[in-house]
């Protein structure tokens, strides 16, 4: 039994039943209602991190650090780092636990993008573990017989939306390149928690209750999340022996265990027999899946290089465009309380999102003017549009330099927030930023071998054309849907300075860009930067975070000409700054923490 599991069991004073996939009766007497209380007592290190977060303080460390969305996942990664493992090793351990304790957001059935900074070489590498459309998918995948786009959740729930998962291969590829620990051992904590039980977090319980109608549609999913018809409750102890078995297979046979053989057959059967809306995923799709190394997209900002994942993610290009435009204005002098700063940020975002909707998609299938979109002359010209005093009355895509003829229509695909982000720095100075997802909360809702299958294909445009002009991000067989995930490493003079990323659908881009501005321009530490109330514009309303001091900005933004929408904005930012030691921040809106030593 691993240390983390011993501590968890002791903290909850549990005797865990040995039967399969069930919620234990032997639970804490009262369901936990807040994340801090739910995880208190698991370990001293978690307690200290929770206290720091509750008081708005960052976590500091000298050697290594991990920030992740669930304390048990962060602890699994921390144990690996403490034992001398690399950031890639810690990611494997943390991701294996996240797939258990935060299954609504990421897991073996999903995809991820990873940015790696190698301390020895100074190089930044980006790996694409995005899901792919099945070879039998057609551009009209999400249209009805009349050619009209399906309603979003009619497309999401079931087999149609499931792309070939990429996360298991990405874990393996990162370990192959940068791992120091024994692959097999990296699954020990997740297996122990899956077999022995883990306390359902308040957030997981709340999301299950909210999604109960959809989860109830598939027997295997309902048995796990709604045993005896009741949503699993916060504080109850849940076991997942099927997940433990799947992890054992991966620990012994590598990621191949999920792409060939009985687990792959179960995935394919589950997708193709999903009642009401079967998909076309095949054994061939699984067997040909591969992780792709892509060129990092790096954009200068205040003398730093902001580096991240290029297409098929729109993350680095759109964050890069926003920051590239803002680099031409003095946000530090304006300060975080100044509506003029938010006018610049809001309109820079609108301009960047206009380009995103027109140009960004999987470069293996469509030509994308990657260099042109962040070229200094192009950014100069677009930034000049921000020179007025009020919100831009009209925003449209620009015409970046490119040597291909381009005629694309604008995409308006829906992306709802789910997803998870892991930031890690290891004792050797390497840094890892990985955003990982099953797309919508609980993905397709299909559950097989203890994990959920993604609905990533709904990140494609449901329409193929607009006014007879093709949409770059339309569905095509083997293509990867455009993403907004923006795992980022900010570099300064050839070394990593800030590791950051967030969940949040297409708002990820705004969350990450704003936090970088807060850190670099406004002098905030990483905890202050991730906690700073959100104001996000995605080329529509100016979204303001409800219940925060940002609400005071609403009348001023309206006076500038924006339509304002005050609402919850559930980011899940995890950031680590490097410099004189390590400083970690975890988003107060979610259950994550930073751990370091
Ligand atoms: N499905 C979330 C994203 O890729 O942006």
Give your account of this protein's structure:
With 597 residues, this protein is an alpha+beta fold. The protein contains 23 helices and 23 strands. Helix 1 runs parallel beside helix 8, helix 8 runs antiparallel to helix 12 (241-253) and helix 16 packs across helix 20 (376-384). It is globular and about 60 Å long. The relative contact order is 0.18. Bound molecules: glycine. Glycine (GLY) binds next to loops.
Structural class: alpha+beta
Summarize the biggest pleated sheet.
Answer: 7 strands, antiparallel
Helix run count: 23
Strand order of the largest sheet: 1-22-21-17-16-9-8
Q: Tell me the span between the first and last alpha carbons.
A: 23 Å
Shape: globular
CATH structural fold name of the domain at 293-415 and 484-596: Glutamine Phosphoribosylpyrophosphate, subunit 1, domain 1
Based on DSSP secondary structure assignment, what is the total number of beta strands?
23
Helix content: 25-40%
The CATH homologous superfamily of the domain at 293-415 and 484-596 is termed Gamma-glutamyltranspeptidase, small (S) subunit
State mean pLDDT (0 to 100 scale).
Answer: 93
CATH class of the domain at 293-415 and 484-596: Alpha Beta
- Estimated radius of gyration: 22 Å
Low-confidence stretches: 3-33
Bound small molecules, by name, code or SMILES, are: glycine
Fraction in beta strands = 15-25%
Oligomer: single chain
Which CATH-level-2 architecture of the domain at 293-415 and 484-596? 4-Layer Sandwich
């Amino acid at each position: 039994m691993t240390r983390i599991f011993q501590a968890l069991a002791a903290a909850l004073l549990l005797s865990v039943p040995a039967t399969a996939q069930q919620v234990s009766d032997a639970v804490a007497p009262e369901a936990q209602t807040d994340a801090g209380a739910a995880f208190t007592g698991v370990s001293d290190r978690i307690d200290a991190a929770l206290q720091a977060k509750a008081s708005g303080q960052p976590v500091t460390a000298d050697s290594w650090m991990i920030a992740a969305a669930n304390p048990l996942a962060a602890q699994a990664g921390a144990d690996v780092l403490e034992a001398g493992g690399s950031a890639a090793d810690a990611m494997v351990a943390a991701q294996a636990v996240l797939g258990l304790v935060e299954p609504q957001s990421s897991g073996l059935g999903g995809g991820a993008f990873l940015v790696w900074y190698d301390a020895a070489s100074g190089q930044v590498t980006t790996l694409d573990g995005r899901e792919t459309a099945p070879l039998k998918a057609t551009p009209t995948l999400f249209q009805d017989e009349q050619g009209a786009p399906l309603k979003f959740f009619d497309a999401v729930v079931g087999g149609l939306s499931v792309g070939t998962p990429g996360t298991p291969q990405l874990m393996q590829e990162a370990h192959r390149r940068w791992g120091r620990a024994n692959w097999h051992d990296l699954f020990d904590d997740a297996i122990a928690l899956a077999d022995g039980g883990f306390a359902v977090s308040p957030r997981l319980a709340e999301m299950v209750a909210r999604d109960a109608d959809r989860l109830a549609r598939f027997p295997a999913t309902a048995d796990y999340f709604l045993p005896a018809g009741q949503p699993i409750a916060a504080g109850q102890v849940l076991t997942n022996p099927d997940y433990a078995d799947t992890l054992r297979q991966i620990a012994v046979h590598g990621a191949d265990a999920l792409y060939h053989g009985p687990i792959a057959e179960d995935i394919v059967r589950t997708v193709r027999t999903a009642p009401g809306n079967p998909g076309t995923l095949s054994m061939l799709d699984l067997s040909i899946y591969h992780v792709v190394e892509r060129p990092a997209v790096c954009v200068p900002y205040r003398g730093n290089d902001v580096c991240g994942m290029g297409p098929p993610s729109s993350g680095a290009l759109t964050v890069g465009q926003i920051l590239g435009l803002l680099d031409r204005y003095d946000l530090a002098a304006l300060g975080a309380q100044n509506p003029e700063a938010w006018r610049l940020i809001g309109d820079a975002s609108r301009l960047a999102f206009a380009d995103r909707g027109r140009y960004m998609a999987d470069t293996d299938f469509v030509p994308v003017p990657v260099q042109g979109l962040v070229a200094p002359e192009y950014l100069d010209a677009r930034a000049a549009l921000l020179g007025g005093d009020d919100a831009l009355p009209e925003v449209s895509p620009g015409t970046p330099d490119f040597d291909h003829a381009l005629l694309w229509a604008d995409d308006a695909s829906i992306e709802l927030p789910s997803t998870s982000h892991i930031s890690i720095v290891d004792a050797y100075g390497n840094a890892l930023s990985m955003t990982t997802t099953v797309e919508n909360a609980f993905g397709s809702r299909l559950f097989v071998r203890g994990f959920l299958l993604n609905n990533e294909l709904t990140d494609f445009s449901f329409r193929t054309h607009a006014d007879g002009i093709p949409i770059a991000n339309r569905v095509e067989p083997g293509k990867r849907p455009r993403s907004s995930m923006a795992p980022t490493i900010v570099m300064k003079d050839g070394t990593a300075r800030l590791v950051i990323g967030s969940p949040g659908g297409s708002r990820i881009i705004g969350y990450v860009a704003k936090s970088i501005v807060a850190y670099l321009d406004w002098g905030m530490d990483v905890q202050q930067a991730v906690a700073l109330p959100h104001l996000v514009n995605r080329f529509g309303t100016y979204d303001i975070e409800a219940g925060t001091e940002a609400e005071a900005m609403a009348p001023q933004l309206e006076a500038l000409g924006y339509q304002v929408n005050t609402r919850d904005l559930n980011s899940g930012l995890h950031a680590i700054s490097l410099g004189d030691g390590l400083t970690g921040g975890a988003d107060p809106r979610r259950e994550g923490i930073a751990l370091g030593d």
